[in-house]
Amino acid sequence: MAFKKEIVEIIEPRNIFVGDIDAPVTLMEFGDYESEACAKANEVVKQLLDEYDGKIRFNFRHFPLTKIHQRSLKASEAAVAAGQEGKFWEMHNVLFANRRNLGTTSLKLHSKEAGVNNKKFLDDLVNAIYGWQVQGDLKEGIERGVKDVPTFFVNDELVEGRPTFDNLSKAIDAALKKSKRKSGVKQRA
């Protein structure tokens, strides 16, 4: 008797956004859930999403610095797992809020707090079911020149300097101006 292998479609981190999906500006961060700097940047991103409501969408990509943050890889996998149930952003925020407590058993508890119902959540983490998705983000980050976290891109352009509200706002404003010029050209053509 042959077994039919079930094909499961995994929602990739690059396809998970918060904000207006049709927004003219995409803010992308490569980050690590154990990083204090990324936790601070997460608060800045929340402010930006409020300030630029309808004008930006945000995408978080995983860049676990495993040499200094041993638990960041599993935390990233936990976020991807939560994303399969549409709970990525809930888990994302819970992980940052609990960044000093990211052991595998704690991740299971955090998943419940985020509203994840998957009974196999812990098994999926232990078996690294979503490891390839995190590695894919890491590989893309390296290809884009990411060396440290947090690293931000606005419409695929690297944002230089610290990820402050002012610095990221300037990059977003410039991208919005550029997108208005492009849409203006299309209307005249």
Describe the structure in your own words:
The chain has one domain: 3-Layer(aba) Sandwich (Glutaredoxin). It contains seven helices and five strands; from the N terminus they run ββαβαααααββα. It has a five-stranded mixed beta sheet with strand order 1-3-2-4-5. Helix 2 packs antiparallel against helix 3, helix 2 packs parallel to helix 4 and helix 3 crosses helix 4. The chain is globular and about 60 Å long. The C terminus is likely disordered.
Summarize this entry quickly.
Helix content is about 50%, strand content about 10%.
Binned, the helix content reads: 40-55%
Kindly report how far apart the N and C termini lie: 63 Å
Mean pLDDT over all positions: 93
Report the major sheet: 5 strands, mixed
- What number of structural domains do the residues give? 1
Name the strands of the widest sheet in spatial order.
1-3-2-4-5
Rg over CA atoms, rounded to whole Å, is: 18 Å
Can you give keywords for this protein?
single chain, 189 residues, alpha+beta, Glutaredoxin, 5 strands
Helices and strands in order, then pairings?
Elements: E1 18-19, E2 25-31, H1 36-51, E3 56-62, H2 72-83, H3 88-97, H4 104-113, H5 121-126, H6 131-143, E4 151-154, E5 157-158, H7 165-188
Parallel strand pairs: 2-3
Antiparallel strand pairs: 1-3, 2-4, 4-5
